[in-house]
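Running this now, will post back.
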Amino acid sequence: MNTTSLAANPASPLDEQEGAICQLPIEGMTCASCATRIERAVAKLPEVTQASVNLATETLQFRTRGGPTATSAVVSAVEKAGYKVPTEAIRLDIGGMTCASCVGRVEKALLRLPGVQSAEVNLATESAQVVLARGAVPMAALLTAVEKAGYQARPHDQGGGEAPAGPDRELLEVLAAVALSLPLVLPMVAELFGRHWMLPGWLQLTLATPVQFWLGARFYRAGWAALRAGSGNMDLLVALGTSAAYGLSVATLLTDDSAMPALYFESAAVVITLVRLGKWLEARAKRRTVSAIRALQALAPDTVHVKRDDGTLEDRPLATLRVGEVFLVRPGERVPVDGEILDGASHLDESLLTGESLPVARQAGEPVTGGAVNAEGVLTVRTTAVGSTSLLGRIVQLVENAQAKKAPIQRLVDQVAAVFVPVVVGVAVLTLLAWGLAAGDWRAALLHAVAVLVIACPCALGLATPAALMVGTGAAARHGILIKDAEALELAREVRVVAFDKTGTLTEGKPTVVACLGADGREADAQVLALAAALQAGSEHPLARAVRTAAAQTAPAGTASALQAVPGRGMQGTVGSQRLVLGSSRWMDELGVDHRSLATAAEAQAAQGHSLAWLAQAEPPRLLGLLAFGDTIKPGAAAAISRLHALGVRTLLVSGDHRAAAEHIGHALGIDEIRAEVLPQDKAAVIAELRHGGTRVAMVGDGMNDGPALAAADVGIAITHSDGSGTDVAMQAAGITLLTGDPQRVADAIEISRRTAAKIRQNLFWAFAYNVVGIPLAALGMLEPMYAGAAMAASSVSVIGNALLLGRWRPQR
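Update: finished.
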């Protein structure tokens, strides 16, 4: 009986019978009726034979019928009953995988464990992402399951165990294989020039044996592990094929007394050499595919200059830094963690994080991001986030998760891989029998069967999708485009409508004074700005900050007294001997202020969607001027809309702002459709309407009040602000997060998703083509084993090489 539990519960309420027992934590139970409801919901499942809930320990224990458990079905039943099973994600490093069938075997081994909801194995990263009920499966059980399947496993980023062969040793072994195999091939080369000779049989045996059993030992080990697990893989095919050629040659050498017996040592040795060479090139290329994560991890320095309480500095390892501690960043150094500047000002280069090439000015009171390079000033910073809670840590985790996830198209590959090796072995057996019975030449028949075994390329099938995903998501991350998972990337390529929020997405989100008129209608009245700034002193309202910023560039603000906010009207106060008011047209009418002299100008500003504020003297009522506020369009917004149109994407503006403001922005940018005065809670309904009929829709927002709409879209794209606000909400609600405020990154995200999807299709085409064309050629006797080995090795290398071309992608400027 297979038993796995998460809590100490020696007395099981389940009867002793065959099947696997699993125990899951449950959240949300309050009484005995809750326990009963869960038991009934779970017991209805056909996979479950018994279920029992312990209200005191808040756990569910159930028994399945054996074999792979239906934990995900149980979790779904619990959630439908109104409760929750808390989950956790664990990442494992997997060693020994060589092809797509290995991936399927590891996943099945993990899914057999009670408590595991999902397992996704990535051949390119040699890792597994396992989602399980919190605490339901010990780490040791996960590692043991993988090892029983014939592979090595360890927790991600944790050392221990047998170290894999380094690249230098791998290369030396490949060179040794080449050196031993080359003399075996020379007679074949000589025949091209009309020279017929061959090495003595005993010398061929001497050269081929170390290649077969020393340099080819890895194929025997991995193939035997696959057989013990009841399946097959690429290593098994190579081991079977080369052993057949080698064994036939040995048998011939011992029994044939002719001067030049037909020996095939060169076929076995060259196949092993070429496959080893291909695997070395493949490993070298795979190391390049993870360069994006390594580059991100390298952004954080190893040490930090921590400021002690007495003001002195202490250099400490970054891992020891805690939230709240103060550190120093000198010119030219990288900011170690997220923080807030306490003292100093500088420009920070955040290009490796956001893809934005221009340095960003930062001063006291503003945030800094770990990984940014300090240009000139000395900064004193208080730590606000460290480790995985920092922006850099979350970015690395997001990219790792995206690369570990499977694309939906990978399901087809998994189905093929599950039967690939048995089918190839079957075709090889049929080839042997067909040629042997038809022609009577069993030697030739065996060589043709060997060619069938060797030409099969399950490794190319396994690498086709994850290699392209790794390079594509990595290239995007280098330019500030974070793709949450493979599904978001695959859906983004099909997007045909992009809906934009206005404020903070297409505009800066910070109102500015766009017009200042005196009572006489003249523009840029410095006195009006100075008086308005005096009334707005101390206010944190966005319009108040805009007034003070504009006044600081023209004339110093005066000093106001008796300041008072009038709800729904504006501000009033005394400047010098004047009692002044600043507010709405309605308030001006109530106070009897005649503002007809600026009525035409006010209408013109309102038509552009600008907000208005009138400045007047209260006693006697007299108009002093008019201020107009507008939200500046981002520099890249127009280019973003144009590029989306060029990609065949229709654009839509969904804004809660009043119609005049929305239409002004929309028409200025050339947006196809404008929907104004839409409340935040109604934006999701607009997205649902757009998706009607199967149209793929992306929603672009700043990640704050656009959360429901981002989640409702096929692809949510969140733009974060330059000060870092909105990042947490963005990463949770959106499938794609843009770490720069440039709207052009939306078109970049769609473009890289389309290019990555194209690479996946190309890789799958070539992976299938190698097998669809190569296996029949080998079965028909048109392909020698040596050339079949070269083709098999080339298949994996070409697939990864094609994926690496994505690394050249750069966003348009």
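The chain has 27 helices and 30 strands. More later if anyone needs it.
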